[in-house]
Amino acid sequence: MSTAARTWRLVKHHSLTVYALLVCVYLMLPIAVVILFSFNSPEGRFNYVWNGFTLDNWVNWNSVLGIQDAIETSIVIGLVATLVATVIGTMAAMGIVRYSFRGSGGTNLLVFLPMSTPEIVLGASLLTLFLNSTTVFQLGFWTIFIAHVMFIVSYIVVTVKARLIGFDRHLEEAAMDLGANELTTFRKITFPLLLPAIVSAALLGFALSIDDFVITYFVAGPEQTFPVFVWGIARVSVPPQVNVVASAIFLVAIAIALANVLWQYRSAKRLQGAA
Amino acid sequence: MGPFFHRHPGLTPYLLLAPALVWLGVFFLVPLGFLGYQSLQSGIYPNFEFTWEFSNFSEAFSDYRTQLGRSFLYAALATTAALLLAYPLVYWIAFRAGKWRNFFLLLIVAPFFVSYLIRTLAWLNILADEGPVVGFLQAINVLGEDGRLLATTFAVVAGITYNFLPFMALPIYVSLEQIEPRLLEAAKDLYATPTQTFLRVTLPLSAPGIVAGTLLTFIPAAGDFINAELLGTPNQAMIGNVIQAKFLESLDYPTAASLSFILMATILVALLVYAKAVGTEKLTG
């Protein structure tokens, strides 16, 4: 049997594996390109074609006018919006899962709808609200904050809800039997057990906030978050510093995701040990 | 807070829900009302007047039918492509990847850690006219000498497919992972061939994941304008491009608002038809 035929047989036998790995390559390709081109020293204005290796872009990452302000704005909005959305979203999840009340169907629908509405409609409708009430709202930092809390909160509710549904309420009953009041039970039992889900939800919220372009673009006015900055500069030419910031965010996000997985794994193990 | 809750236990859920529901009410529902109000106005920026201008809708629809149709066509193509790419991948991860499962799941979500715009811009590098992909395709005569990938329908649909692939992959993975292995063994014991087992056991059991993945891909894809803007030309303009330009460039708010409504209404109708077909439980989880 020729080598070609043998290779063909091997590929055919493992065709699913080959296909899956090719899709993985497809998924990773743009990420690799972003990181690679952060080390490029482009010949002209355009950073499209590989020209030569340099570390200058990383050293002088903030040498592009406006890039540092934009990333700082993104981080601040991400933190504040995530904090507010996580608090009110966790409360709502508790309300939905723990109590039966009139209007629960409508509540679930109201939480679900923003996630199933195209971002452009969310952005456009918020813009019409803000434009029609300029005495209350001026486009800028706070309108971005309002918009981000709005679209993050549904994701928080869904994430925390999933954990609450699988929650063993006997632990709380035991605490109450031992004389703890509701507040103490919440502080010492419910909250620590929910914490991993709340942290995951908050991380998701922060990631959604810092990456959002469409809604932010509609309500930003003169304010620039990092994605809005990239959009503006993409119409001229994208400097490699944008790739540097994107690569840095990618590496930090991967590190946080790994740490979170590890921590969840450990706390799950500790619980198993305790039970 | 304890005694208050004891005296009014029925109030507790409403107090817990109030902040989130008020926020969603004021900044999601009320804006939709304003969008409707704006869509029925007439006049030229900044002097709009509310005149029950229902003709905005019919005019917007007939003027931008092409872009609306294109949005749904591109979204359908991208959703199909994403399904064909994602299903075998997550099937392999769920049943063949063994202890490497979590690693490959991380690969699926990794694109989310690179900003949406920047992921799309990376395709500019990959598909560049002087880039290796175009060079290769020209060398094997798939593309002509002046052939290009950028600024084509292919580039836009490929960009949308790439950007929403994880939304398709994750729900399907979840539904595949929940399949009881004994069911597959039972099918095998009853002399089902691997193909029969897949078609009659695995595929139907993963249907909820396919449904969820299809929705999560199709809805944002239909409203997208970034891929068409960055990877296409005006010939690939989608309804999102029109809405965006009308709102933020030509300041024609009434037309932009009625187009947003047309987009949302079309999606909502599709969603309701879909919900009726598969049951609402699967949709809202």
Describe the structure.
The complex is a heterodimer of chains A (275) and B (285). Chain A is 75% helix and 0% strand. Chain A has a domain at 65-238: MetI-like (MetI-like fold, Orthogonal Bundle). Chain A is built from 12 helices and no strands. The model of chain A has no long low-confidence stretch (mean pLDDT 89). Chain B is mostly helical and 285 residues long. Chain B contains 15 helices and 2 strands. Chains A and B meet through helix 2, helix 4, helix 5, helix 6 and helix 7 of A and helix 2, helix 4, helix 5, helix 6 and helix 11 of B.
Keywords:
heterodimer, A: MetI-like fold, 12 helices, B: MetI-like fold, 15 helices, about 75% helix, about 5% strand, globular
- The share of residues in helices of chain B is over 70%
Strand order of the largest sheet of chain B: 1-2
In percent, how helical is the residue content of chain A? over 70%
State the order of secondary-structure elements of chain A, H for helix, E for strand. HHHHHHHHHHHH
Q: What is the CATH topology assignment of one domain in chain A?
A: MetI-like fold
Q: Please indicate the count of domains of chain B.
A: 1
Give me the Rg of chain A, rounded: 24 Å
- Structural class by secondary-structure content of chain A: mainly alpha
Major beta-sheet overview of chain B: 2 strands, antiparallel
* Nearest-integer average pLDDT of chain B: 88
CATH H level, superfamily name of one domain in chain A:
MetI-like
Distance between the termini of chain B: 32 Å
Biggest interface pair, counts: A-B, 86 and 86 residues
Number of helices of chain B: 15
Q: Estimate the strand proportion of chain B.
A: under 5%
**Second CATH tier, the architecture of chain B:** Orthogonal Bundle
Number of distinct beta strands of chain B:
2
